[in-house]
Amino acid sequence: MKILYIVLIILAGLIFIGWLGLQFKPAPFPAYAAQTPEFKTIPVPENLPTPVERFYRAAYGDNIPVIESAVFQGRATIRPFFNIPLPARFVFVHNAGKDYRHYIEATWFGLPILKVNEGYVDGASFFEAPIGKIYDDAAINQAANLAVWAEAGWFPSIWLTDERVRWEAVDDRTALLFVPFEDRMENFVVRFNPETGMIDNMEAMRYRDSGDQARKILWITTTEEGPNIEGTNISSVGSATWLDQGKPWATFKLEEAHYNADVSEYIHQKGR
Q1: What DSSP line would sit under the chain, residue for residue?
Q2: Which residues lie closer than 8 Å to 97 by C-beta, 6 or more apart?
Q3: Residue 60 pLDDT class (50, 70, 90 cuts)
Q4: Measured CA distances, 265 to 13, 67, 71, 98, 115 (Å)
Q5: What pLDDT, on the 0 to 100 scale, is given for residue 18?
C-alpha cells in the first residue's frame, strides 16, 4: 500500500509539472525586418452583394488596399494531440491568392517541443513534422488551397483584387465566396455580423486526412474578439474548427502583420 501511495504521488507530481509547463507562453519570434510600403488602393467596386459591400466599408473605408504578399507572426493555442491545448508561436507567409507556408512551434515551459513546416507552394502541399511527412497529396492540396483563401481574412482585399474570385448574394447576412482550385472553383459560405458588418465565420467542405478523398468535413473559421490589425477594423484573432470536433483545434493571435514585402525566396524556406 505504501508503494502505491508513492506511485500516486509521483504520478500527481508529473501531471502537475506537465500542466505547469503548458502555462508558459513562448516568447515571440524576433520582429520581421521588412516594412510595409505605402499601399496602392482601389475604390470599393459597385454591384457587390449588400453584406459584402458593407463589410469592406466597415473593414477599410472607401479605399481598398492592393495586397500582393503578407507575413504574419504571433502566438497561438493548438490541439494536435488528445485535445490537449499547447501554447505555440507561428510565422505565416503568403504570396497572396497563390501560395502560403506555415512554421509553427508548440512549446512547453516556453521551449519548442514540436516544430511543424507546412504549406502550399506552386500548387503542391507539404507537411513536415516529427509525427510524419506528406508531400503533394491530392486531398491535402484541396485543404491547403482553402487555407490560402481563408487566411486572407487577415487581408480580405485579395477577395476583390484577384479577378478569379467572385462573390454571390444569398441574403442580407450571408454571401458565397468562390475561389479557384486547379481547374475548378470551390466556395465558402461567409456569414456577416448584422451589427458590425464584419465577418463572423466562414464555412467550407474540406478534406482533413491525407489519402482520403472519400469524405469532406465542414471546416469553420471564426473571427474572435481581439485587437484590430492596424489601419483596419479586422480582428487580429481567429480560430479554426472541424465540425465533428466541436471546438477549435487552433486559435491564432496575430501580433505582427507586414504586407507587400518580397517573399519570393522566404516562402520557399523552412523554419523562421
Answers
A1: -HHHHHHHHHHHHHHHHHHHHTTSPPPPPPPP---PPPPPEEEPPSS--HHHHHHHHHHH-SEEE---EEEEEEEEEE--STT--EEEEEEEEEETTTEEEEEEEEEETTEEEEEEEEEEETTEEEEEETTEEEES-HHHHHHHHHHHHHGGGGSTTHHHHSTT-EEEEEETTEEEEEEEETTEEEEEEEEE-TTT-SEEEEEEEE--STT--S--EEEEEEEEEEEEPTTSS-EEEEEEEETTT-S-SEEEEEEEEEES---TTGGG----
A2: 148, 149, 152, 158, 162, 164, 165
A3: very high
A4: 47, 18, 13, 14, 21
A5: 67
Closest CA relative to residue 70, chosen from 200, 236, 216: 236
Task: Answer whether residue 8 shows pLDDT above 70.
Answer: no
Cell representation of residue 102: 506555415
Query: How many whole angstroms separate alpha carbon 97 and alpha carbon 112?
Result: 30
The Cα 12–Cα 26 span in angstroms is 25
What percentage of the chain carries pLDDT values higher than 90? 77
Cα distances from 25 to residues 13, 74, 84, in angstroms, run 21, 11, 15
Q: How confident is the model at residue 219 (pLDDT cuts 50, 70, 90)?
A: very high
Q: State residue 272's pLDDT score.
A: 83
Residue keyed to cell 473593414:
59
Q: What is the model's pLDDT at position 243?
A: 95
Distances in whole angstroms, Cα of residue 117 to Cα of each of 4, 55, 121, 135, 246 = 43, 33, 12, 11, 26
Q: Which domains does the chain have, with CATH numbers?
A: 2-268 (2.50.20.10)
